[in-house]
Structure formats: C-alpha cells, structure tokens
Amino acid sequence: GGSNETGGKDNKNPIKIGVVTSRSGAVEAYGTQEINGLKLGIKYATGGTEEINGRKIQVLVEDDAGKADEGIKKARKLLEEEKVDILQGSASSAVAQAIAPLAEEYKKVFMVDPAAADEITGKNFNKYVFRSARSLSQDAATGAKYAVENLGKTFFHIAPDYVFGKSSAAAWKESIEKSGGKVIQEEFAPVNTQDFTPYLQKAIQSKAEVLIITWAGAGGATLLKQVNELKIAEKMKITSVIPDIAGIKSFGDAGVGMQGPAPYYHALPQNDVNKWLVENHQKEFNSPPDLFTSSGFVAGVALVQAIKKAGSTDTDKLIAALEGLTVKGPKGDYTFRKEDHQALQPMYIVKLEKKQGVDHLVPVLVKELSGQDTAPPVTVKK
Amino acid sequence: MGEKLFTNKILIAVVLSLLVLLPFVSDSRFLLTMMIQVFILAVYGMSYDLLLGYTGIVSFGHALFFGTGAYSVGILLSKTKEPGLLPLAILIAVAMSVLVGVIIGGLSLRVKDVYFSMITLAFAELFFIISEKWSSLTGGNDGIPSIPVPAIFRERIVFYYMALLFLIAMYLFLRRLVNSPLGRTLQAIRENEHRVESLGYNVLQFKLLSIVASGVVATLAGAMWAIFQRYVNTSVLGLDRTVDALLMTIIGGTGTLIGAVFGSGVITFAHEWLSSLSTVHPIFERWLLFFGILYIVIVMFFPKGIVGTIRDRWIRR
Amino acid sequence: MSLTINLLLNGIALGMLIFLIAAGLSLIFGLMGVLNFAHGAIFIWGSYIGWTVYGLTGSFILAVIAGTLAGIGIGWLMERFFVRPFYGNHVAQILLTLGLMIVMTELIKVVWGPIILGFEKPELLQGVVTILSDPFPVYRIFTIGVGILVLLGVHFMLTRTKYGIIIRAGVQDPEMVQALGINVRKVFSMVFAFGAGLSAFGGVISGPSFGSIFPELGMQNQLAAFIVVVIGGIGNFVGAAVGSLLIGVMQTFMAYYLPDAALAVNVALMAIVLMLKPEGIFGIRR
Amino acid sequence: MKTLLKAENLQTYIGQYHILQGVEIEVKEGRVTVILGRNGAGKTTTLRTIMGLTPPREGRVIFQGEEIQGIAPYEVANKGIGYVPEDQGIFSDLTVEENMKLAMRKNEKATQDRLEFVLTLFPDLKIAWKRKGGNLSGGQKQMLSIARAFVNDNKLLLIDEPSKGLAPIVVEKVMESIRELKKHTTIVLVEQNFIMASGVGDDVFILDDGHTVYRGEMDEFKQDDALKKKYLGIGV
Amino acid sequence: MSNPLLETRGLTIQFGGHVAVNEVNFQLKPHTFKSIIGPNGAGKTTFFNLLSGQLKPTAGSVFFKGKDITKLAVYERTRLGIGRSFQITNVFPNLTVLENVRIAVQAKGGVSFRLFSHYRKFHQFEETAVRLLEKVHLAAKATQLAKNLSHGDKRKLEIAILLALEPELLLLDEPTAGMSLEEVPSIIEVIRTLKDSGDHTILLIEHKIDMVLGLSDSLAVLFNGRLLADGTPQEIMNNELVQSAYLGGLYEDAVKS
Ligand SMILES: Nc1ncnc2c1ncn2[C@@H]1O[C@H](COP(=O)(O)OP(=O)(O)OP(=O)(O)O)[C@@H](O)[C@H]1O
Ligand SMILES: Nc1ncnc2c1ncn2[C@@H]1O[C@H](COP(=O)(O)OP(=O)(O)OP(=O)(O)O)[C@@H](O)[C@H]1O
Ligand SMILES: [Mg+2]
Ligand SMILES: [Mg+2]
C-alpha cells in the first residue's frame, strides 16, 4: 500500500484511522472509552475541524470481540478494504499483540491503547508500534516505589491465573526489588474464582506487610469485598491499581482507604487539556471521561500532531515524527520514547475516599509522579 | 431421481466454477479472506458432522483436534523459524490427533450420551487450561504471533485456491467415507447402537474410528487455520471453537456433509455483516443480539438445517 | 486444625453457592432433559432484576421476590415459545438455548450497560462471626441455610407430589402421559418456569455473595452448574447438591494446597467421576 | 342399544402419508367391539386417532354425543377413555408403583379397590412392585399396561393387542376380566389372537388399507368360514 | 450322540435380590429345534440375554461348540454364529427397511472397515437383503423408514435382520407376537425351512402353544428362573404343573391332539 493515490485538489482523500477494539465481549467498556477518547483527541488537536490540510480524518471502528483471531481478520479488512493509513487499538492485549505483526507486514503505524501488556513495547516490539496507554510496568513502577517507601517492605501478590496476571506480577516484583522491597509470595487464582478465602488465608499466613491485588475486570470487586469481609486490612496494608469508574463503583464501600497507582481519574489532573476533555466529554456523552478515555485522547492528539509534522500520512515519515514526540495530554506531558515507542506519562498515587454527592469512592491524590520517575526499563531487543 | 441427481450435479458445477472464478471477478482481498475462512471452517464443520450427523456422537471437545493442528504448526514453525518444516508440522499434527483421538476416545467412549459429551468437554477444557498455563510453549492467551509460513502461502490468491482445493478434497474424502460400508455402519450405530453390536460389529472400534477420522480432518483444518492466520492462541482450543462446529453443522443440516459449508458461510458472513452494521445505527452496537436472533430463527424455521430443509422440499416435490 | 475447619466451612459455603446456581438447571436439564444453555442468562437476569429492585426499594426480600418472579416469567415465555417444539431434540436445544443465551445477555447490556455493578449485602447479613479464631462472613451462613432450604423444598416437591413422576415419565414418552389424562405440556411449562424461577432466585441470592454482577457472569457460572448436575447424576436433585458440595470443598482445598491445579478442579473432577462411575455419583445405570 | 362412540369417515395423515382413508367404527355401550385386520391395515392408527394422538384431518369422532376429534389427548382421557397402546407405553425409568401412581386419575376408595383387583389379576405386578418398568419381562409390561387402564373408572377402554406376549393362562385371565369389566365399561379391542378375539368379542370391524371393509356381529363372523378366510386368511 | 452345540452350566443371574435365572443346566443338540415355554417373568428372555451376551451371569458359564464363551462380548458371540431376535422390536428407526437388512448382511460380509469403497459396490449384499425382505413379505415396503412400519411389519423386519446374519444358532424371542394371523404361517414356514435345511439350530421362545408343538423337536420349560423340564412336546404337555400354571384351560384341546 501507500499514500500515493492522491485525489483531486479540492477533494482530497480522507485520512483513515482504523480502530480494532472490543465493541462486544468482556472488555467492551474499555473499547468505548478508548474510541470516545480518540475522537475527542482528534477534535481537540484539529481545533474542532477534524481535518488536516483539508483532509478529513475518518475513524473506522471494527469489533474484535476481545478475540485475537477476530482482531486479525478485522485488521486485515481495514488494511485491505479500507486502505486505512493508521491502525489503532485495542482493548485486549492479546488482540493488540496479534495485530502488531500486521502493522509491520502492511507497513502502517499502529497506535496501541488501551492494551497494557509489556510485551507489546517489549519482547514483541516492532518499529510500527507506538503506545499512548501506560504499560503494566508503569503501573508497577508507580505503585511499587510508593508502596515500599510508605506501606511496607514485604509483599504478597494475588493476581489472575493467565498471562496478564503473570506479567503484572513479574513487573511488580522487579520494581519492588529495585526499590528495596521483597515479594514473599505470589498466588494466581483462576479468573472466575468465586471464593478467594484460601488465597487470602495464605496472604495472612505469609505475614507479608502489604497485599498487592492485581485484577482486571469483574472479579476485582468480588476479591476486594472478600478482603474487606475477612478484615484483611487489620492485618496488612493493601494496594491495587485503581480501575475505571464502573470498577470503583462495584467495590462499594469495600475499597475505602485503599491506596494504589492510578493511570487516570478525571478529577486528578489540573490543566487546560483535561478541563477541555472533561467539559466536552460531559457535553457529548453526559459523563466524565474515564480510565482509558485519556490515553485514547492522547492517541488522537499524537497522531494529529505527527501527521502535521510529517506533512503526510507516509508511514516512514510518521514514525520519524512520532519518535520522541511530546504531546500535551490530559495528564500533562506524554513522550513517546525512541527506544520502544512507549509513551512516558505522569502517574498518580491515590487513596479511595468517600465523598458527598459522588456515587462512587473518589480517588484522592496522594502523590503525582512524572513520566521519567515511572519509566519502565527498555526491554526491546536490539 | 436421476434427473434430480443431474440438476444436483449442475448446481454443484455452477457453484464450483463461480468459486474458481471469484478471484478474477472480485478484486476484494477481504472477500477472499472471508471465503478462505469459510472453506477452512467448513472442513472443520464437516468433520464434526461425521461425528454428530453420521455416528450420532455429540462431542463437546472437538476443538481439541482443531487446536492440535493449529498448535502443531504454530509451535514447530515459530520455534524453529523454519517455514520449510511445514509438511513435517502437518505430519506431526496428524500423528498427534490420531494419538489424542485414540486416548480420549478410549477413555470416554464407554460413557454414554450427555455424559460422553460432558467428558469430552472436560478433556477439551483440560487441554485448554494446559495451553493457558504452559505459556512458554504456547504463548497462552497472547498466543504465538507471526508464525513463519512459507512465502507462497502468504499469496492470498494462491492460498484461496489451496483452501478451496482442501475443501473439495476433504469433502470427497468424507463423502466416500460415509458411503463406504464403514460409513453405513456408523449410521446404523447412530440409530441403534445395541442392535449393531448384536449384528456382530464391535461398536467401540467403529466409534473410535469415527472419532479418529473426524479428528484428523479437524486437525488438518486447524493446521490450515494456523497457516492462514499466521497466529495461534488458546482460543483454538476454547469451547467457542467447539460450539462453532456445532453451529455450522446444525445450521447447515446434520448428516449432510455439504451442509457445513453453508453453515460456515452463514456464520462467517452474518458475523461479519452484523458486526459492521454498528456504523449504520447504534442499536447494532449490540450486533450479537441480532446474531443470536438469527440462530434462533434458523433453528425454529429450518429445524433440519439449510441443506436438510431444501432436501426435504426437493423430495416432496 | 483451625485452618482445615475454616477451609472446610468455606468449601461448604462455596458448594452451597454453586448449588444455588445449579438448582434450577438440575430441574430443567437433569429432570426435564433440556440442555438449557440459557440457564446462565436466566440466572443473571435474576441478579439484575434483583439488583434493580434492591436499589429502588432497599428491600432485599422484595429483590429476591422480584428476581424470582422475573425468572418464572422468562422461563414461562421461553418454554412456551422456544423450548416446547424441541423436547427430546438435544442438538436443537443446544443451538436454540445458545441463541437465547446470547440474546438475553445482550439485552442486559442494552438495559443496564455492559459494565460491572456492585451488589451490596443487606445490612442484616453483613459482617462476620468468628469461628475458631477465623472470621466467617454471615452471608455465607445465610447461603448455606438457603441452599439447604431449597434442597429440602424441591426434594419434597419431587418426592411427595406427582410432579416428579410426571416429568420423568413425560421426558420419556409425553404422548403416553397425555393418554393417561395428564396435561403434560402444562406440567412441563410449570416445571420449566419453576426451574427458571429457581435459577433467577439463585441469581439474586448469589449477587451479594459475588459482590458484583456483570452480564457475562451467567455464562461463566453455567459450566460449573452443568458439571455439578452431571457429577451428581443427571436427574438426581440430591445428587446435584452433593456434587456442588464436592466441587466447593475440592476447589477450596485445591486453591490452598495446589493452586496451580485450581483452574482444572471442576473439569478434572468430572472426568474422574465419569470414568469411575459413568452415570454420576447418584446416577442410575440405564 | 346405545351407541357410546362413533367414528365417521376418519381421514388421518401422518406426515404426507394418508393412513386412514375413511374408517367407520361404531361402538355400542356395554359391548366388546373387536377390530381386526392385517398388519399395517390401520388398526393402531384408528385407536390413536380416537385418542387424539393423531388427529384426523377430516371426519368425526363422537363420544357420548359429543364431538371430540381435535381435542388434546389428555382431555380425551379425562372424558373417561382408557388406552392400552400396542407397544405397552411403559415408563421404563419409573417403578411399577410409580407407573401405577401416574395412571391413577383419582385417589379415592374405588380406585384403591380397582388397584386391589388388578393386582390379584396380575400378581406378578405385586412381586415386581418396586422394579423399574424397563426391567420387566415382556409379558409383565403388557400386564402393567393393561392394569394402568383398568385401574381407572373408564367409560371406554381402547386396548391394542393385549394378548401379545402373555402366557396362555394369563390370556385366559385377561379374557375373564374383560367379560367382568363389560358390565360397567365398554371395550374396543384390537386383537390378532383370534381365539381371544372371538372369545370376548360382541361386534367386529375389519380394516384393510385404511378402510373399514367389514362390520358385523362376532357370532355370525365366527361361524362364517368364508368370511374368515377372506379377511383373515384363516384356514378352515 | 453328538456333542451339544450350546450348553449352560449352573447359569445364574441375580438382579438385586431377585434370581431371574437360577442354576440352569441346559443343552441344545446341533440341527435341532427346541422351544422354551414358561410363564411370564419366568426368565426366558433373560436366559436369551445371557446366551447372546447382553447380560453377564452372576454365576455359571455358557459353552458354544465346546468353547467357554461366558466372557465374550455380544459382537464376538454373533461372529461365532449366535444370532438373535428381540422380543421388544429393536431395529434402526431412521434407516430404510432395506438398509436395515443390508447392514446385517454386510456384517456377515466382513467388509465393514473398508472406508474407501462405495457401499453400493457390494451389490450382492443388497440383492440378498431384497431376497430376505421378500421372504418376510416386506419387499413392498423396502424404501420406507423402519420407524414408519406398523408393529407387525416391524416384527417381520426383525426376523429378516436375523436371517441376514445366517447364524448357526438362531435365538428367536416370540418372533410372531403381533403378526397378523394370515402371515404367521408363512413366517413359520420360513423358520421351518431353515431347520429342515439342516445346518441351523433353533431355539424359540413362544407362548403360542399350537405353533410350538408343530415345530419343535423338544421343549424346555422355565419356571421361576429354574429349568423345570426338558423333553418331547408330548411329555411336557402332560406335565401337570405346566398345564395348571401355564396353559390353563384354554389350550386343553391343543394338548390332547
Ligand atoms: N409415522 C408413520 N409414518 C408413515 N407411515 C406410518 C406411520 N405410522 C404408521 N404408518 C403406516 O400406517 C399404516 C397403518 O399403521 P398401523 O400401525 O395403524 O397398522 P396396524 O393395523 O396397527 O398394524 P399392526 O397389526 O402391524 O399393528 C401402515 O402401513 C404403516 O406403515
Ligand atoms: N434388569 C433387571 N432388573 C431387575 N429385574 C429384572 C431385570 N430384568 C429382568 N428382571 C426380572 O426377571 C424376571 C425374568 O424376566 P424375563 O424378561 O426373562 O421373563 P420372560 O420369561 O422373558 O417373560 P415374558 O414371557 O413375559 O417375556 C422378571 O420377573 C423380570 O421382572
Ligand atoms: Mg398396530
Ligand atoms: Mg420375554
């Protein structure tokens, strides 16, 4: 492919961004946040015109249902039928990893968000892949340092028993040890575990000072509620990555007082971009932006800026423009570092608190860390 | 009767030549992709029909075989980075599936009816779990990306014809099989297992044979799938895969073989079409809803599947 | 010792929770022989209706009643329009109920959105009691109690009334049951609706136990329900309860002592039971 | 004599097959009406059509002056028509006890008495009381099937080949009991065993190819060797 | 005297507390026709099930041609030459009448594992099947599905399937129950011809006493699971217990003749 097919003067080809993400399946809510963010980001960066040099930006969305093979099919469709200039996605890490090789094959930039697996900008990296979302390592780096310094030195980690849980655990372990702490035990429970008591019993018996809870999606609330019920908090400190609003809501009161890293919550950043985002999101979708809205937004902004900078949608030029690019996003400065194309970005440590008039626990800022502070190690093989 | 057979043949010839000509009349590479998927899944569906429609076995573990094929190709090629080893990978796949078929079949065939279905489901789940846990080998849910397949298979048009050929070959093989004395025995087993036994047939042996034959075909389909996608993850072993086989067979019509081709076509295209409608109207963001309704409608109004129903009409006329 | 007892108690509680999920299926699949792959959907609809009514009224009892009634209604419609033509035809049932599963799950997303909802325990049932120095949630004691009540109630209905016999006979030869002067259709409708109500009831009761509900939760628990019914012996209600307890206790102990195998407990247990006793623990060889 | 049941011009289809093509039956109250005919003549289908199991496309079934074609089988049964199907229709997973329990429409004294009566008629059933229906011997199944029909207060009994599989002495007992029952119940009997048919029958209908080809009184028919030869192929 | 073709020693089966077949010592000479009579529930069918392998005895053994076959599976016994028909009709409901018989002929043909040849290649099977259907008056219904047959016709099909196996030993369980009066004689004729052809041995369970008397070389009587008597028809008919407990008054004429 290529962008050598130029249309007439007045009637230029649109710039096509093909999004492969979950519009159904277990993580479809994340997909929605991502797409809303992306569209708003484009709007913001183009000053509302959704055009660059007279070329309309078109966002084409395909549903991968959270399945890798479905994602491959849809990505091929976007690449071959729609001849998209840029790929974007996806809510599931497995899908993103399955699509990344296609980006290489078709020589198109693939802007990853919200998939967080480290391998995407690590072991399985190729030069067409960029990521506006934070990676698991960034979560871990944020949370680990703070936890070692403020919560305790010995850790017990409970995570779901599949690749996501394992690589989260590995990332936390590395960061904790770097900060001088120690992970005494890691326990992996099946994704749809209903009774976590045996695992929590072990946590108590391990005598660790801090319990790390890693759980993406639904089981998290169940786990947290059982933690609460068994009064684990009386025996050890608890930390966990703070999820999206629906996730926090599902905690009920069980999450009160929990501290942990938060990739984004709309009330945390105080800057103009975020203000714009919150206002416009509220206007358009009648709700505040959520966990992955911000990284989707950044993806949009970064792409627009890169295209402007490159002066075209030519892939090589785009890559050159994106590498090292710093954009202003809702959390502040996001920099796509050259080595692995991961966007370094500010991260937050928060504490969940009850607040009048809000129907969920509110993450209250404890500490903000800069992109550099939370930079994960580069694991790309040269 | 003879006339019907003749029209039947004409129909098949027309459809076949359309399929052969398709790459020349359509420049849509995506359409070819879809058709390739239809062909490969159709083979997988037909293999299931051998069990369900001809032997009367309801297996909930058919994905086991599909996954065996896909993983054999995926693991061997990606670990060795040696595309030339594809024939070996397929050979290994077939050998593995025979082994798996004999072992699983041997362990579970003494169990009857729904119990058999459930035990096959248990085995498939166990395999699924192993593939999730043994991620150093399988990549778990993240899978094995960019499987290095021989360059020729990356040519979409070439692969299209290969897949078509594969479908035709497997269809002919299975048709032969169901019309052989062996196939006839299987059908009798479907009807009345105990009576077949008292005719002097060793039912267990025949059922095992059916499982292995169907397993080998499903394995080949799985191998083709891995070559086609150049990607494998645990979903090839998931329950959804088995359900796919079931859906294709039933929608097309059990005990018809060719029905699976229709089933595969309906599922693939309905899926694609409905999921792309979300831009038309927001209600289609819930496209699965309509997909579910489609299933229901097909089962309610074509209880014998597409081909089965057409056949019935035909006979009545 | 205290650990073992604690694990055992938790295992029993989990088992009873699984039983509540499986009880409705045990009637519909076990007794009526309908492979109901929409069971999980009825179950989760119960949860959602219960959640809504609980939120609106603040009364958990009303939530349970509303959820159960909704289940009965869904079951009745389902039987009347979808299941009735396909008694005895397992293959069609699978496909049809799978379709219903998808449709009903998606409808939940249309109504409530595709997100997770927190389901709080009623005040009265919050908190823990201490058993041998370990805390044990009150709600689990509640589920154990409810499970036992359901078991006894349904067991009574099946053994002391004619319904159990009519269903078993009707599954084999509905024509002959009719010829004996029994409106077998009506009985089937009623029992199906009752089973669906039971599923939805399980959905409401287990909602707070999970702590949160989401549309796919039904699908997730469905397999466990099927496994329990099969392990216990299809058609045996008491067997389903025993199977549930077995699975609950096994899961709990495995999670503690051999967590790597926790994922495989259910299916492995089923495979072993079936290979040793092909008709399930309480099943009868045909 | 009063007519209890009348079937007029029964036209029954199964699928696309036209099975009954105008069957006519008339059953007089208090008598035993025997239906004869070769295999595949439509005897069973006639009984099933009366029961509502294979409703007729055309024609009428009049029971006690009321048209009952087209109503559900359980309603037919509840009008007081008992049915003993040719394949016994035993529920194999149910015990003999449960089979009987299922059949007993009412649980009153009279029903209990009748239960006593059938258990003395077929003592085998008492022995096998807790056995599964599927484990019974062929003859025992037949007994159970008959017992199920006898235990209710029926106005009309449709019995399809009761003698099949029964030992001679039991056949004799069944014949006796039918003669006994005749006092308060009317009976339609399909029977291949001519000894039995002629032993208890009062009226006779012969079906062939879905048509009624003969009707008359059993006493006449029994004597008429030509008729017997013509319709039943029985040698003289 | 020739060795018995079939012999049982102490053959016993117990269901729960109920002994259905009780220490039966039984012999069947080759090329003879023996019938088994006895009250309902006496254990006749169960005895057949033990011979053909559907049931395994709790005690005792079965010998066929001097060989102990007690442990053999159903299909192995069939291959040795023991064929049976069933009291409760047992056919292939969704196959055609012809295919029902053809599949049995094929079993005898030993080609069942051939998967690459078309079944119609073996047309001799089909011809045989058609011939057999003619014998039992079912040729006209060859293309119907077996489930659509009337009861009596199914019984005929049952017999055709058995004949197709050409077993050395035929176990017939009330073959004519439900068959119409006019057809019974010709079916009996078929069985009689088999016997007369000399290479078959026949064991028949039947309640139609007149039929039994006409066909059998000898009669065995089962009572409550025990072998009560075994002898010529005349001997058996004169047995008082048989008369009072089995035959009743109805068949007095038949016995006297
Ligand atoms: N389901 C069916 N589909 C097609 N034809 C059928 C079906 N059931 C019965 N028939 C046909 O209807 C005819 C009448 O059958 P029916 O069972 O009434 O005969 P019958 O007189 O009772 O015979 P028998 O003495 O053998 O019991 C037969 O020719 C049979 O083949
Ligand atoms: N599986 C079983 N479990 C319990 N009892 C059984 C089982 N099978 C048979 N019986 C009992 O064993 C006895 C013998 O049955 P069998 O079928 O052999 O009788 P039969 O002599 O063939 O009688 P009929 O002439 O009525 O066919 C019967 O009383 C029956 O109830
Ligand atoms: Mg009949
Ligand atoms: Mg018998």
TrEMBL record, chain B:
UniProt xrefs under InterPro entries: ABC_transp_permease, LivM-like
Top-level taxon of the source organism: Bacteria
Subcellular location: Cell membrane
Membrane topology: Multi-pass membrane protein
Residues annotated as transmembrane: 6-25, 54-77, 84-108, 114-131, 157-174, 208-233, 245-267, 287-307
UniProt main location, coarse: membrane
CDD domains, A to Z: TM_PBP1_LivM_like (cd06581)
Annotated keywords: Cell membrane, Membrane, Transmembrane, Transmembrane helix
Protein's UniProt name: Branched-chain amino acid ABC transporter permease
From TrEMBL, chain C:
Chief location bin: membrane
Record keyword Transmembrane present: yes
Statement: the UniProt record of this protein carries the keyword Transmembrane helix: yes
One of the Pfam families matching this protein, by short name: BPD_transp_2
Annotated localization: Cell membrane
InterPro entries reported for this sequence: ABC_transp_permease, BCAA_transport_permease
Ranges that cross the membrane: 12-45, 51-78, 90-117, 137-158, 187-211, 223-249, 256-276
Entry keywords, A to Z: Amino-acid transport, Cell membrane, Membrane, Transmembrane, Transmembrane helix, Transport
Membrane topology, as annotated: Multi-pass membrane protein
Similarity section: Belongs to the binding-protein-dependent transport system permease family. LivHM subfamily.
Protein name: Branched-chain amino acid ABC transporter permease
Organism of derivation: Effusibacillus consociatus
Highest classification ranks of the organism: Bacteria, Bacillati, Bacillota, Bacilli, Bacillales
UniProtKB/TrEMBL annotation, chain D:
SMART domains: AAA
GO-annotated molecular function: ATP binding
Entry keyword set: Amino-acid transport, ATP-binding, Nucleotide-binding, Transport
Coiled-coil zones: none
Domain ABC transporter, chain residue ranges per copy: 5-234
Family: Belongs to the ABC transporter superfamily.
Record PANTHER family: ABC TRANSPORTER ATP-BINDING PROTEIN, HIGH-AFFINITY BRANCHED-CHAIN AMINO ACID TRANSPORT ATP-BINDING PROTEIN LIVF
Protein name: ABC transporter ATP-binding protein
Native organism: Effusibacillus consociatus
From TrEMBL, chain E:
Single annotated GO MF: ATP binding
Alphabetical list of Gene3D superfamilies matching this protein: P-loop containing nucleotide triphosphate hydrolases
SMART domains: AAA
Superkingdom classification of source: Bacteria
Signal peptide: none
Residue ranges constituting the ABC transporter domain according to the UniProt record: 6-249
Keyword set includes ATP-binding: yes
PROSITE patterns reported for this sequence: ABC_TRANSPORTER_1 (PS00211), ABC_TRANSPORTER_2 (PS50893)
Record bears the keyword Cell division: no
Pfam families assigned: ABC_tran (PF00005), BCA_ABC_TP_C (PF12399)
Keywords: ATP-binding, Nucleotide-binding, Transport
Protein's recorded name: ABC transporter ATP-binding protein
